[in-house]
């Protein structure tokens, strides 16, 4: 039971491990809303033709959502952590819980923009109205001529294309389709909110850590990532400067570059083995009761002990 609780915590903590992730997801959602609104205003044009409406309406909702999903997957660092894990340590070393956790966090973050696009499309109703207009049953409309088929119904998204004698039905058909579209949209919103709420509850209930330590872990990962990226950029610049200096005999850098070169006399290349040790999937782990918050934290801890054999064994473990 304890192991199951711990694995559940590892899964949900991957999704909510950083406040920066939540903020980033919020910005993605806002950007998607703006993109969807601009698309409806400037680009959406229903063909108002039987057979084409359905394909165009579904494409207007589904294709951008698919593109957003693929872009979200590609922009997610966890995707490339998983790729690196499979390349360096083979995917078969991933336990079922670890694989579920990683794929869950990748998918969870990847669906933010697609779901936002789909919800906004449904709430606005234009794409749904275009797609489903030809399937409206004329017999459900009081006073509507019974001899009209899908070809005529498909013209209703374009009011100017509707035959003059049928334009009085335009408002009713438009309201009905928008009602259906917005109902589906609000149900999707409710489902999303309920899912996020249940995941947050699962995180709080299954976490072996206290709230303060979870918050500390989130801050640690954000700070480690920021410091690592900045230091890596400086290290790469210093190493490049040293190589350029060895070739030309001098470096035409800025005052800041010269100060850094004077402060750090050399920037030695880092061996691939150490790069590989700090690259890949990581789930929360402890050593003798002390938390290890990342692969870098784990590498640093074992490096201090100078136990290469233990490090090699430990760095291959995910949980």
Automatic annotation (TrEMBL):
The UniProt record lists the keyword Ion transport: yes
Keywords on record: Ion channel, Ion transport, Membrane, Transmembrane, Transmembrane helix, Transport
Coiled coil: none
Membrane topology value: Multi-pass membrane protein
One GO BP annotation of this record: ATP export
Membrane-traversing stretches: 21-42, 54-73, 183-202
InterPro entries: CALHM (IPR029569)
One GO CC term on file: plasma membrane
Main location: membrane
Subcellular location: Membrane
GO MF annotation list: monoatomic cation channel activity
Similarity field: Belongs to the CALHM family.
Entry protein name: Calcium homeostasis modulator family member 2, tandem duplicate 2
Source organism (scientific name): Sander lucioperca
Gene behind the chain: LOC116053632
């Amino acid at each position: 039971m304890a192991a199951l609780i711990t694995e559940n915590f590892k899964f949900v903590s991957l999704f909510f491990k950083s406040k920066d992730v939540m903020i980033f997801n919020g910005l993605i959602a806002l950007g998607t809303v703006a993109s969807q609104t601009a698309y409806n205003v400037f680009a959406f044009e229903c063909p108002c033709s039987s057979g084409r409406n359905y394909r165009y309406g579904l494409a207007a909702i589904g294709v951008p959502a698919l593109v957003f999903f693929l872009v979200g997957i590609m922009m997610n660092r966890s995707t490339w952590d998983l790729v690196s894990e499979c390349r360096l340590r083979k995917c078969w070393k991933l336990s079922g819980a670890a694989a579920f956790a990683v794929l869950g966090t990748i998918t969870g973050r990847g669906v933010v923009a697609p779901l936002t696009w789909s919800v906004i499309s449904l709430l606005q109703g234009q794409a749904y109205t275009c797609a489903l207009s030809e399937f409206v049953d004329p017999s459900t409309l009081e006073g509507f001529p019974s001899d009209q088929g899908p070809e005529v119904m498909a013209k209703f998204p374009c009011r100017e294309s509707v035959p003059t004698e049928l334009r009085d039905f335009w408002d009713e058909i438009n309201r009905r389709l928008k009602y259906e579209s917005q109902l589906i949209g609000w149900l999707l919103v409710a489902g999303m909110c309920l899912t996020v709420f249940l995941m947050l509850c699962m995180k709080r209930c299954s976490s072996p850590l206290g709230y303060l330590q979870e918050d500390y872990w989130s801050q640690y990962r954000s700070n480690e990532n920021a410091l690592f990226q900045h230091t890596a950029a400086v290290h790469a610049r210093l190493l490049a400067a040293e190589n350029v200096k060895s070739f030309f005999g001098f470096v035409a850098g800025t005052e800041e570059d010269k100060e850094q070169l004077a402060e750090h006399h050399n920037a030695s290349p880092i061996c691939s083995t150490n790069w590989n040790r700090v690259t890949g999937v990581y789930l929360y782990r402890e050593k003798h009761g002390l938390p290890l918050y990342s692969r870098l934290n784990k590498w640093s801890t074992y490096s201090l002990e100078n136990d290469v054999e233990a490090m090699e064994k430990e760095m291959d473990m995910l949980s």
